[in-house]
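In the current project phase, the collection of sequences with tokenised folds has grown. One resulting record follows, to show the layout:
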Amino acid sequence: MARAYREYLRRGGTVAAIVTDTPGQNAAMAEKRALPFPILSDPSGEGAIKPYSVWDEAGGMSNPSIVVVARDGREVYRYVGVDFMDRPREHDVLTIIDELGLPPLEPALATVPHATPVPGPRALPLRDLAVSHARRSLRRPGVGWARPRPVRPRRGRAVVQDGRTLHRGAGGDPAPARTRLTRPPPREAGRVDRRARWPAGVGLTLHASWERHDHAEPSVFLPENLLREGRRQRALPEGQVPPVCVLDPDGDIVRYLRRTGRAERSAVWACYHTELWETTAGGMRLGIVGCAVGAPFAVLVAEECFASGCRVLVSITSAGQIAPDLALPCFILIDRALRGEGTSHCYQPSAATVDADPAAVARAAAGLRQAGIAALRGTTWTTDAPFRETATAIARARADGALAVEMEAAALYALSRAKGLPIVCFAHVTNRMAQDEGDFEKGPEDGAAEALRVAVAAASAWAGR
């Protein structure tokens, strides 16, 4: 009724709730649900509940009822429900009030006064109200929840207006006006009981926020254990991957090496979702995983690489231009990432950005200089939703210093900082989000040869070169 309160006023009706709770509990309910009408306390039922013949002696409380009383004190409508979720349609009650022909009322300008709020023992916190309402609308076979508006009429119940029977349940006698309407007989076996509770072990718990605060707590699910099961199920031998691994989200490097006959599939890589290819470049043995696109996938593979013997990880991902003065294509050594994805927040407390390990970035930069490779250094924006790169989001990223947008760096750097792992991320800026035809040009061999050269140079410092 709170939702339709203004409609009741517009038709000349006023609303008051009468319950057995204390005034303090009523005040807490009114405050929590922002109720616009008063809640009156009748703990014994003697004030109004029993006189209106809606007292439930067994439960020591009122049956869920709605009574419409004319201004002369005459009862013109009543509805007694089976339980607290059983209510008439709002339209039916408003139609009854319309028939009284009352002049409209203005809503009160001041808040209805209540006693000092004192939550009752069964009061729900505000954040749990959504759970309560969600449970009411669920229907789970065999569990006992059904939709709150059953088909009417029902057996054994009548709705009376001015002595006339408006609705009568099948098989039930018409109830005379102003007489108590009893509950229906017990439900038949096999019927859904809307009053039934969830069985033990079955629950619905929603939290107001899923911001993580358990970053120091170890994970139950470990990459080593997943790889163990992968080896067992696929009969793979024990072994380690090369100490330097490269993530190649676009798959360009892997396709280039396979096309030129320079890559072989790892015999010990036990990941369920990818293949690791081994090659030698610049005198260094590398393991390369292609097409692990996006923050969750990249971090999953990175964790498995380190669990399989990797000592340093280099990621080179395709990126879209944010800063207007970039000459494409170009490489950016990422030293900070805007956290526009979700995975990084599982590894590090929530913040706007995550920084790369300064020592790792410095070593990678030294390797690039030694190899004579020109690369920019700066911030990128990591997103989970490439097709939600709106003009507003791009402008915000640009204002926060982002040079480009990609999909992995923030999560990989959060993993790096959380576990002390040497990870270096590069953005290969190749496009302007396809706003113009002829975009995504990376150069010869789709830029794979140059990207491989960058990866080798960056990792050379860890290889003692």
